C-alpha cells in the first residue's frame, strides 16, 4: 500500500512522514490553501527527503509554465495536478522530466468518455473529494468504476477509517492531509505515524 502524506510545511513533519515509512510527501503550491508553501521553503524541505521517497508538488489550475517553473525551483520529482488540467498538460510535464499524478472527483471521473478513460487510466490517478484538502470523505458510492491503472484514494481519510476504505475500494495507495492534522493546516507527527501504520494494516 503506497502512502502519500500531503500538505507538509515543516522539517519536523517531513521527517515524521519519512520515518513512518511514507512513500511520498506532498507540498501544496496551489494558492489559497492553509498549507501553501513557497518553492523556496519546499526546496529546503525536499533536500531532507531520501531518494526513495517521492516528492510531490500539488497544483490546481495554474498555468503549466508556472507549474514547471515552481516544481523545478522546489526540486520535487512529481507534479500533482488537481484541477481541470488536460492530458496534454500531463504529457508536457512528463516530457519536462517530472512524474505525474492527476486528481479527479468521483463526478469528474464518471464524466470521462470510454475512449478518454483508456488514455486517462494509463496515467497515475488520484480519486478525491470535490474540495481537495478539506477532509471531506470521498463519495465512493457515486463512483461508477475504479481506474484500471495505478490510482490513489484520498478525501477524508484518517487513521481510523483508512484500513476499511482501502480494503473495500482496493486502490494502489492512499493520500491524506486533514486526517493527520491536529488543527487545520497543522500536521501532527503521532497522527502521521498512526495513519501509515493503519494504511498498511
Ligand atoms: O491540501 C490542500 O489544501 C489542497 C489545496 C488545493 C489542491 C489540492 C490540495 N490537496 C491535495 C491533496 O493531495 C490532499 O491530500 C487530498 O485532497 C486529501 O485531502 P484531505 O481530505 O484533507 O485528506
Structure, explained:
With 201 residues, the protein is α/β, with parallel strands linked by helices. It contains eight helices and ten strands. The protein has one domain (2-199): Aldolase class I (TIM Barrel), CATH 3.20.20.70. It has an eight-stranded parallel barrel with strand order 1-2-3-4-5-6-7-8, surrounded by five helices. Strands 9-10 form a two-stranded antiparallel sheet. Bound molecules: the ligand O=C(O)c1ccccc1NCC(=O)[C@H](O)[C@H](O)COP(=O)(O)O. Ligand LARABZUK binds next to strand 2 and strand 8. Ligand LARABZUK binds at residues 6-7, 26, 28, 30, 33, 35, 58, 60, 82, 128-129, 132-135, 154-157, 175-179. GO terms for molecular function: phosphoribosylanthranilate isomerase activity. InterPro entries: Aldolase_TIM (IPR013785), PRAI_dom (IPR001240), RibuloseP-bd_barrel (IPR011060), TrpF_fam (IPR044643). Pathway: Amino-acid biosynthesis; L-tryptophan biosynthesis; L-tryptophan from chorismate: step 3/5.
| Shape verdict | globular
CATH class: Alpha Beta
Helix content: 25-40%
Distance between the termini: 9 Å
Question: Which residues sit in consecutive blocks of at least 5 with pLDDT less than 50?
Answer: none
Strand order, sheet with most strands? 1-2-3-4-5-6-7-8
Q: What is the CATH topology?
A: TIM Barrel
CATH superfamily: Aldolase class I
The fraction of residues in strands falls at: 15-25%
CATH architecture: Alpha-Beta Barrel
Gyration radius (Cα, Å) is: 15 Å
Average predicted confidence as pLDDT:
96
List the ions, cofactors and other small molecules found in this model: the ligand O=C(O)c1ccccc1NCC(=O)[C@H](O)[C@H](O)COP(=O)(O)O
Count of individual helical segments: 8
Protein name: N-(5'-phosphoribosyl)anthranilate isomerase
Keywords: Amino-acid biosynthesis, Aromatic amino acid biosynthesis, Isomerase, Tryptophan biosynthesis
InterPro entries: Aldolase_TIM, PRAI_dom, RibuloseP-bd_barrel, TrpF_fam
Family: Belongs to the TrpF family.
Amino acid at each position: 500500500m503506497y502512502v502519500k502524506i500531503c500538505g507538509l510545511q515543516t522539517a519536523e513533519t517531513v521527517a515524521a512522514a519519512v520515518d513512518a515509512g511514507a512513500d511520498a510527501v506532498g507540498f501544496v503550491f496551489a494558492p489559497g490553501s492553509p498549507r501553501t508553501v513557497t518553492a523556496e521553503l519546499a526546496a529546503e524541505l525536499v533536500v531532507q527527503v531520501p531518494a526513495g521517497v517521492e516528492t510531490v508538488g500539488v497544483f490546481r489550475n495554474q498555468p503549466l509554465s508556472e507549474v514547471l517553473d515552481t516544481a523545478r525551483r522546489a526540486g520535487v520529482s512529481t507534479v500533482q495536478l488537481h484541477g481541470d488540467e488536460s492530458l496534454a498538460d500531463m504529457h508536457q510535464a512528463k516530457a519536462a522530466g517530472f512524474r505525474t499524478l492527476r486528481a479527479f472527483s468521483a463526478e469528474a471521473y464518471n464524466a470521462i468518455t470510454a475512449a478518454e478513460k483508456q488514455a486517462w487510466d494509463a496515467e497515475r490517478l488520484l480519486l478525491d473529494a470535490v474540495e481537495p484538502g478539506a477532509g471531506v470523505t470521498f463519495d465512493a458510492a457515486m463512483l461508477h468504476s475504479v481506474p484500471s491503472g495505478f490510482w490513489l484514494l484520498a478525501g477524508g481519510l484518517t487513521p481510523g477509517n483508512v484500513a476499511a476504505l482501502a480494503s473495500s475500494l482496493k486502490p494502489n495507495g492512499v493520500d491524506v492531509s486533514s486526517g493527520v492534522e491536529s488543527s487545520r493546516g497543522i500536521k501532527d507527527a503521532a497522527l502521521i505515524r498512526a495513519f501509515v501504520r493503519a494504511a498498511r494494516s
